[in-house]
Fold each of these.
Amino acid sequence: MDSSSSDDEYIETEKEVFTAECLFCDSNDLELETIFDHIKTAHGIDFLDDCHRNNLDSYQFIKLVNFLRKNGKKPDDFSKILQEKLFDYEEFLKPSIQDDYLLMFDFEGEVSPESIDIEKEIMIKPEIEIIKSLSSLSKDELLILVKNMMQKFKKTKQSLLDIVNFISANDSNVTQIDNVESSKSNLVTTLNVEHDQSYIDSYSHYSIHHQMLSDKTRTLSYQDAILENDSFFRNKTVLDIGCGVGVLSLFAAKAGAKIVVAVDQSDIIKNAQRIIWENKMEDKIKTVKGKLEQLDFAKLQLPEKYDIIVSEWMGYFLLFEGMLDTVLFARNHLLSDRGVLLPDRCKLFISAFSDCSIYEKYIDFWNDVYGFNMSSIVPDVISEAIVESIRPENICSSIDKISDINISDCSIHSVSKIESDFELKFNNDSTIHGLVGWFDCNFESMSKLIILSTSPFSEPTHWKQTIFLFKEPIIIKSGQTISGKILITKDVSNPRGLKIIFKIESNQSGTFAYSMN
């Protein structure tokens, strides 16, 4: 029989061999299956075992390989690089050399011995032969195979989404990237109560409401927007989203609203109900406990359309906690045709700051902790945005607006990913310790304009400002600028969290990534 036409043709096909260069010497053409044996024999490093003991994931494995390629590190440095996570920065997702097949290595794909041969056999066969192979497996073998492939899929999907975000922030030629996952899956509106319980519970205790009510700038801005525009509220239907203890509902009722529906998911709604009764507002204010997106207003015998939707939804750096998703859902489904939102416009700003005390508090602190060097924690510190108050005199550059959101007509997806260019100008020599962000909220639909600002130049609020520390201070001369791009996205694993990436493209170039969770 002609072997070229045999059903067993796939057996005759030679397996493609991928090779790569050693990470610590000039040896090349090493097969992926043996490269780590070479590293162990030639350089005394059990590479994979060391990576696993340091709890690296496949995402960090890629960064480590690119870091070693770029910096040409010696074997003696490897332990320090791993322990201090010197490689764990978004910039090292970009391949350091072309066609580096070591990046294809399935670091997290090591599976139980009984399933390795099964999976390898199936993966190299054509589709018709895969069906034959699967039919010959026992139930237990199939379960092992499915379990391992599902684990790989979940890990690969998350890594791929992180890489996509990185590429979109670092490649000016990338204008659009196909959705790797349904865009709806990362929205707060789709979270079920079980997955969102810790967030809900955080608003059940009185302490967080005490903090917010004690913020006079925040509370008085809402009070002024409502009571100084009482003619606008008279005989109107009002929806208060995330009502907490009900202060905004009380303002609206006092302004003459016909009916106010106060909604909250947390148990604080019980306190709100008692407060409403104590203030004899129960005829005007109705409380509802539940996730707004799942409420049946008709079944609850409540209005299905509202003239005014009011909510204090803003989180740190405006978008943290993702409550804007719920407000926009309500706008799309519950706001009347000529209805208004309060607030209805929000703006995000960034600037640079110089403050040695903040740098010493968060960075230098770890260099000497009761006589011990703990500086290995610093990469973790600078990977997270920090909520702190910045003194006005510590703002050392111009201010740039990076987003202007019209809540009345923006889409949910447009605020799930915000991209902007920025440019910061310096009129004096400065030592920059990081960037700082804040927001303003405008109540523009009222006859009297009210602006709630969290700027360092305004009265302090509980939102403070959000700072993004540099690992090392940057020295800037008068007349210089720092320019680049900023990308703000939802955290892939937590829709209420944020990922913020700054790509600085001026003479102080670099990519800086931060998270808020």
Amino acid sequence: MSIPGSLRGIQSLRNVFRAQPLQANLRRLSSTSASAPWFIDNETNAQTEHRAPPSAMSRIRNAPPLPANTPQILKEIHTELLESPHLDISQLVVSPAIPPAPGPDLPSKPGQGRRKRGVTYAGESAYDATNGLWSWFIFAQVKEGTESRGAIDSVVRIVRKVLLNRTPPVPLPPKSRRQMQNGWAMVDAGNFAIHVLSKESRDKYFSDIIPR
């Protein structure tokens, strides 16, 4: 006995409707299993995804701690420099300006003659009220042997990019390649400065300035 065409069509539709819930369940199970196993809590899995990779954590641990009152802009530069493969992270130092120790006072000497010439006390200086041209410093030392292979130039580009991408951008002087050839480059950002230097330049010029 042959089945009429209309009945065959109805039967095929029933088979389609029966298969749809099964396929939906399979898709749902496959997506759930791909995201996380059944025995891992979703909240725990989310925390694991946002955790910093081990390499980044080790670099942060190797870097000297930032001072508590570090300005935000220096924190941003510091964060970017931590990712540079050219730097010796253990020598990445952020420090406020430390004024030099005052020298001995000049002996007071009264003036001579009618015009009182030769007086050694000239009053208070406005320069003495400040700590120099810059209030903060960053000292970034490149790895030994990389200073002549473009490492200093690469780090300077990172610093300038951070400063120029701010709103408003920090005004910077033109980049000088003459400094980089000497194993030392400085980015003057107004009230703070970033020194990118080799170990030789650090030991030669900054051994008594950079805090240990």
